[in-house]
Amino acid sequence: MMLELSFLTLFLTSISVVIFISFFRSTSHPPSKTPCPETYPIIGILPGLLRNRHRFHDWVADMLSTTPSSTLQVNNFLNLSHIICTANPVNLEHLLVTNFSNYIKGHRYLDYLQELLGHGIFNVDGHLWTVQRKIASHEFNTKSLKHFVSDIVKSELSNSLMPDLFKACDHNLIIDMQEVLQKFTFTNICKVAFGVDPESMSNLTFVEAFDDAVEIGFSRFMAPFPALWKLQRSLKIGSEKRLKEAVKVINEFALAVIKSRQEQDGGKNQDLLSRFMLLSSDMEFQDQEHKRKFLRDIIISFVLAGKDSTSTALTWFFWLIAGNPHCGSLIYNEISSASPLPARDSRGRIFSYEELKNFHYLHAALSESMRLFPPVPINSRSTVEDDILPDGTYVRKGWFADYSAYAMGRMEKVWGQDCREFKPERWLDSDGVYQPFDQFRYPVFHCGPRMCLGKQMAYIQMKAIAAAVMHEFEIMPVDGGATANKMMNPPYKLTMVLKMRGGLPVRLKRRVTAQQ
């Protein structure tokens, strides 16, 4: 009994100290003019977060849309951390370009995602980031890589995706389009990035382990009480135990990939890993173990960038097209008029790199889809020194500065009163030619020095898949697609990438043409 009372006294004393520190912190900060919606003393935004967890990104967008400059301040439980969140293009340019060095990934990213991403390009700053970015930037700008990507995508479409879809259509099967696309893009990234066919490796366990690790890593960022997951990590229990097991599988896969590349003449291979291995041969490493760790982190970064982002973007695209059939008709007309069609076979019509470049409406529809459903919906930085954003928002050293691409696509101040509507035409000029928007209005591929190097590669892959599929089939989601009501409460999962909750079950219907 005395022992229990002692623990209770210690617990209450600790809580009292934390509350006192929280109060001292809040009173020592200068008053901020930045709105702080749904925030309460001591408990911060916890009630709103718990109430809106299922619609988190829409909740953030709703709050930002009510503020004068599309920026808000967030005080977490017990004032233990402070966050500025913005969907203001002017602020975004300041964060990601003008004052780039003051807003970094920082220790939080490294701590929260260390087990999965290690010191890969998405998780580090400074010299480590610069070295990886320099090598990657050189390779992504080579014509040989662009054609290598195009050739692999065409091969996989002809030999894998399209035959599988024809088979599903002929048997009137319901398939999960999100799962089909994930499998396809995973195979593509393995061949483009590592030069390996995942079918020849034990990849199913890796895919499950990778998905689990990403989900658990993201849940750390969303945890109201970070001390709980850190305690679980120390005790190796719960989700943290699963993460440890998942990372072991991930590491085994990465090491197997490295071994397969080392056994071949890397100089003759076109895949990205071989190119990295060749260009990093002059780098100094403590030993072979550190070199393997460096290459392991590169592999996982490529998987993170290529496995889910493209498949997620295409999943929402097909869902939106099903709910806006007039857009689907315009895309079909565009791709059908590309050139005289060959006789149909079980592989369908696979379009060339040059043909894909001329599909302006398709490009616009994909961009519009990602405006509304960006694969990475929210991003975060840590503040190095006190700063003031262009709209007057005060940001203290150590605060987190977040920007929401999801909310940005829903700001009337940025996109007009029709911002929540799917309108590919907003991307076309009077001649029907695609016109990109300013990167700070459209941060889907990030902005500034950290802008996504694989942007053009992603568009090539998405256009190739969408054109091939839509030329042969009508995609009919079981839920009917993107109706006005569903657009008000989209079915997404709360994870690092904006996946569709429950997948996208669809039936396929063959298009009827004069050649059939």
UniProtKB/TrEMBL annotation:
- What cofactors does the UniProt entry give for this protein? heme
Q: Does the keyword ATP-binding apply?
A: no
Kindly state a single biological-process term from the GO annotations of this entry: lipid metabolic process
The name this protein carries in UniProt is Cytochrome P450 94A1-like
Cross-referenced CDD domains, in alphabetical order? CYP86A
Family of the protein in this entry: Belongs to the cytochrome P450 family.
Key words, A-Z: Heme, Iron, Metal-binding, Monooxygenase, Oxidoreductase
